[in-house]
What we know:
Helix content is 68%, strand content 9%. By secondary structure, it is an alpha+beta fold. Among the domains are: 17-164, no CATH class; 368-504, Histidine kinase-like ATPase, C-terminal domain (Heat Shock Protein 90). Strand 4 (433-442) and strand 5 form a beta hairpin. Helix 5 (127-164) runs antiparallel to helix 7 (178-197), helix 7 packs antiparallel against helix 8 and helix 11 packs antiparallel against helix 12.
Amino acid sequence: MNDMTLESPIEKPLQHNKVEFWAATTIFVFALFSLSTSNWPDRELFEEAGVGGRYYEHYFWPQLIRYTLLYLAFLFLNFKVVPKLLNKERLVLQIGLIVLLYLVVGFVTGILDTYTKGYLLVDKDTEQQTYDFIFQESFRNALGLVVLFCLYTFIKYSGLYLLSNSTVIQSRYRMLTRDTLTAFIVWMVSVFLLLALRVGSEITVVWAFISLSAILLYCFGFYFLIPRSLKSKHPFKKYMLLVFGIMALAYLPVAFLMMLLLNDEDTAFGASMFNSVFQLVVMAPAIWFLFKRQMKGNEELYVLKQELGTTSANLDFLRSQINPHFLFNALNTLYGTALQENSERTAQGIQMLGDMMRFMLHENHQQKILISREIEYMRNYIDLQLLRTSSSPDMVIETKIEDVLERKYIAPMLLIPFVENAFKHGISLKRKSWIRISLHCDQDKLYFDVYNSTHTRSEQDPEKDKSGIGLANVRQRLSLLYPERHELIIRETPEEYFVHLTLQL
């Protein structure tokens, strides 16, 4: 456990950048759409003040510039400044950029507000007083936006940190499961949204305390209260009594904390009472139900593991009946005999067959293998087939299989069925035949093509009405292992059979 170290989401590129970008862009587009379809909300204020206002000059264009400025400022801070600031790259420059951006936003929005709030010109004694008031308000709003952005950044990076290290954290603190950490992140996001939308301090504080109390009760009850209560004769009754005692003890502290934030004694004590009743009546039984459901799932999982262990033992016994060492020793004996008799082609075929058998026994059971190993197996199979077909002048077999030097992985035995099918149906010792195989990788995509000639089979051929080797199995494996990440095209003409596979690795 000591070798498990916590990962920092700041030290590596975030995978959530695209999600953030498109979320911000969606909000920006939605704001523009709302702007183009909404009415001018301050028209009456301009009319009451006796100031001639125009829709585009005093509302549409200023708001359009404001939304665009805030959108670009968010992208610049979130994707350029903050990552460098957290990595301590040129700190003075990054802090200077934040201050400069704050000044630009405050100044530009102040200028825009001289248009959108032009009705205020009649409320002050002088025009300068109105401008002073508008610009002071714009800089205060800009500061509020900076604070909200800092809160958003804290929530984002702390959430990423907790989720990326959930396994390590749970190994040290049993109560802090991934579900608990996710619930805590959702709590932070919900409080942030309530603050950003300015729904009111009472709603925000009450929601923050009730939801956080539910999360804490879940952790404490799931891993301490319920396991302790199961030892008694009436476990549910004891568990509810323990929860009641905790809620009674927490009533006054929660009420005083709410009173400090709300400055309203009646609201604070009423909200604290509601919190205690809600946790006792709703959350406590729900936590008990979830715990019992998990226990039932663990029991079913234990039974499945026992059955799987028995099945694995039987499978291992069956495998031991066919000792691979005997097969390899037999192949080595045949290989040595072929060399002694100067049968080089036979020796070569035995060697390739042995390599293919080792691949089948040792690597075929893995979920992923290096593409280079899959290519090596494919080349051995093709070379083995060439031993029996190279003597025919009407046989043309062309391969253009590129070496993949990077450590890219693929599910084993995913490509070879197409090659097997080509040799099965594309080779005729009596008629002109051809097979063309090409494979290459471009970044994270693999392109694989197989062409082979087709021949009409005789009525006596038992394979006449059978499809290719393993093609149905390959289709199923592709759909399971590479959903929405592959393209398989199969075309057949009277003269040729064509397979094209594009795979997103």
